[in-house]
Write a structure and sequence with these properties.
heterodimer; A: 298 residues; alpha/beta; eight-stranded parallel beta barrel; 14 helices; globular; B: 400 residues; four-stranded antiparallel sheet
């Protein structure tokens, strides 16, 4: 079983919602990312989406665009992003890492070369924003053969046919883009998301993580009541951007925000899974199995 | 050789190129657009309306002009200029915007967006939007806004909102990124009029079909004027819409050589150019697979050209296919050579070409002398040079 499948199975068993942070590899500096990833795990995240910087991030809003630009200024690349993921993996064998980016860096490496490199770096999932399943079969097949989940997006305007297409093409989880727009844009409407999730669930059994427009613990909580996980990206990167001269401060503030979201998500679990009496006991061993490892790392 | 040319396939592929590479939110509007395009291209009423607009609003057919003095001077082939510069708004771009705007109207869209480099496509879009009473937003790189300020003013006069794009290299590719971001945000009421034969399917095929009138007219006009087909076609290639427009009707005619002229900027060897077909590699950008200017990591490289309209790191996927199959030949012309073409046509024929089209003129100056006096070259004079007066004056140290 893949690390992602195992993670979502474990979450389902305990009635918990996945907290999935997104940061851009190498932002604001290459040496920031690995310690940041470990710190996020300590704060209680379940899966990490690691953004691969790209010169033309067409689906991203200004915040993530600037993160890409900062990382590229340090010569960050897909190759170096994989190195960062491999470095993280050395001291964390459990937290799934999903690469999120655009197709051209993968094209430049070659699909097979990329799939092999991702396997060596022990990447768990790959989400390529501009690679719909119609064009993605070759790449998905190579990834799946190496135990890596190809993850696809769904949008508010995706019909049943497209949900079924993602269900067939993807694995790991589905990333539901909760609003029409770019990352970090506007505010999502929980009622709309709820309706959409019913349609999605009718056509796939894959877990659904919801992103775009999740800014704080309150929206995360609302969203967690609907989906299986919450993706939070631009809000974290805004913190990095506000603390460019003090990355340590950025790290602390991100940990603080993620911890508050973790708490909010767990309150959802408590209201939903009232029968679970062991939740507090579960928290430590299941949630933070790596705390001692991380402690050693830091 | 190509006997029956019927590219692209149903999913928009020209061999390995083209396709649909977009974020999920754009898939439904692209499918909707494709359905509408397939439907209306066969709809006699739509075609009649389009033909009438091209005749009475754009001013077609554009003349095929025998540049006798220039031909004599160069001492080789007879040069014929396809006068797209005489169209309403001053370039071939209007052929496509008239068509897409009619489509937008049929689809019930109330808002038009576009990207523009030199501003010609932006002006052509603002023009049709004004005529149909549609809201219009044009994205333009901040660098281009500065070097094509005349066209910015024209667009504003026409009621369009011009957004200066400050991200990335602040040129055409970044304007395209920003237009895609707008589209993804406003998919319900917005029609994105892409100005070139790039982007996700159906754009490369659809824009080609709207521009193909250039070559259709040339075929007939050349027969009428000379009694036969031309020996060579020459057109500049940025995204490649004027070139495809000229080439398309001749693809099955083996005897007609086709030359696409890319912008070599400071020279291919300097790396400061905009010539993906001549010096790039295949990759995926802006919704399609094609030749791109990218580094080993797949990051897009900044491009350079004296002409804003050619300053783009990609090229239409059909050109990529025509290159690989050898049906068309892609060459390149530096900024300096393009200026020679600019002055030659201006002084020899009394026609001031756009800097983009000047690249095609410059290559014609190389090609014509290698051919016989009874050979025929058709060069696409895709736009007029009025918009470049400031750039040229500045180069000559003149304050306007």
């Amino acid at each position: 079983m893949s690390r992602l499948a195992a993670k979502f199975e474990e979450l389902a068993k305990t009635g918990r919602k996945a907290l999935i942070p997104f940061i851009t590899a190498g932002d604001p500096r290459p040496d920031f990312t690995v310690p940041m990833m470990h710190a996020m795990v300590k704060a209680g995240v379940d899966v990490i989406e690691l953004g691969v910087p790209f010169s033309d991030p067409m689906a991203d809003g200004p915040v993530i665009q600037r993160a890409s630009e900062r990382a590229l200024a340090h010569k960050m690349s897909l190759r170096r992003t994989l190195e960062i993921a491999a470095e993280f993996r050395k001291s964390d064998q459990l937290t799934p890492v999903v690469l999120m980016g655009y197709l051209n860096p993968i094209e430049a490496m070659g699909y097979e070369g990329f799939a092999n490199a991702a396997q060596r770096a022990e990447i768990d999932g790959v989400l390529t924003v501009d690679l719909p399943p119609e064009e993605g079969l070759e790449c998905s097949t190579l990834l799946k053969a190496r135990g890596i989940d190809p993850i696809f997006l769904l949008a508010p305007n995706s019909n049943d046919e497209r949900v079924k297409k993602m269900d067939a093409a993807g694995s790991g989880y589905i990333y539901y883009v909760s609003l029409k727009g770019v990352t970090g844009a506007g505010h999502l409407n929980p009622a709309d998301v709820k309706n959409k999730l019913q349609q999605i669930r009718a056509n796939t059994r894959l877990p659904v993580a919801i992103g775009f427009g999740v800014k704080d613990a309150q929206t995360a909580k609302t969203i967690a009541e609907i989906g299986d996980g919450v993706v939070i990206g631009s809000a974290l990167i805004s913190i990095i951007e506000a603390n460019l001269d003090d990355p340590e401060q950025a790290k602390n503030k991100i940990v603080e925000l993620l911890a508050s979201i973790r708490q909010a998500l767990d309150s959802v679990r408590m209201t939903e899974g009232g029968g679970l009496k062991t939740e507090n006991n579960l928290q430590s061993p299941v949630r933070h199995p790596l705390s001692s490892v991380n402690g050693a790392y830091e | 050789m190509i006997e029956k040319y019927n590219m692209p396939d149903e999913r928009g592929h020209f061999g390995p190129y083209g396709g649909i590479f977009v974020a999920e939110t754009l898939m439904p509007p692209i499918q909707e657009l494709n359905a509408a395009y397939q439907q209306y291209l066969k709809d006699p009423e739509f075609i009649a309306e389009l033909d009438a607009d091209l005749k009475y609003y754009v001013g077609r057919p554009s003349p095929l002009y025998h540049a006798e003095r220039w031909s004599r001077e160069l001492g080789g082939a007879q040069i014929y200029l396809k006068r797209e510069d005489l169209n309403h708004t001053g370039s071939h771009k209007i052929n496509n915007t008239v068509g897409q705007a009619l489509l937008a109207k049929r689809m019930g869209k109330t808002r038009i967006i576009a990207e523009t480099g030199a501003g010609q496509h932006g002006v052509a879009t603002a023009t049709v939007a004004a005529r149909l009473g549609l809201e219009c937003v044009v994205y333009m790189g901040a660098v281009d806004v500065a070097r094509q300020s005349l066209n910015v003013y024209r667009m504003k006069l026409l009621g369009a909102k011009v957004v200066a794009v400050e991200s990335g290299s602040k040129t055409l590719k970044d304007a395209l990124n920003e237009a895609l971001r707008d589209w993804v945000t406003n998919v319900d009421n917005t029609f994105y009029i892409i100005g070139t034969v790039a982007g996700p399917h159906p754009y490369p095929a659809m824009v080609r079909d709207f521009q193909a009138i250039i070559g259709r007219e040339c075929r007939q006009q050349c027969q009428e004027a000379t009694g036969r087909l031309p020996d060579a076609l020459v057109a500049c290639v940025g995204g490649g819409s004027n070139a495809i427009g000229l080439f398309y009707s001749f693809i099955e005619d083996e005897s007609v050589k086709m030359y696409g002229v890319e912008a070599a900027g400071d020279g291919i060897a300097t790396g400061r150019h905009s010539a993906p077909l001549c010096a790039g590699r295949p990759g995926v950008l802006h919704g399609n697979r094609t030749y791109l200017m990218a580094d080993d990591d797949g990051e897009i490289i900044e491009t350079h050209s004296i002409s804003a309209g050619l300053d783009y790191p990609g090229v239409g996927p059909e050109h990529a296919w025509l290159k690989d199959t050898g049906r068309a030949t892609y060459v390149n012309i530096t900024d300096t050579e393009a200026l020679e073409g600019f002055y030659a046509l201006t002084l020899m024929e009394g026609i001031i070409p756009a800097l983009e089209s000047s690249h095609a003129m410059a290559y014609t100056m190389k090609l014509a002398p290698t051919m016989n006096k009874d050979d025929i070259i058709i060069v696409n004079l895709s736009g007029r040079g009025d918009k470049d007066m400031q750039t040229m004056a500045k180069r000559e140290g003149i304050e306007l």
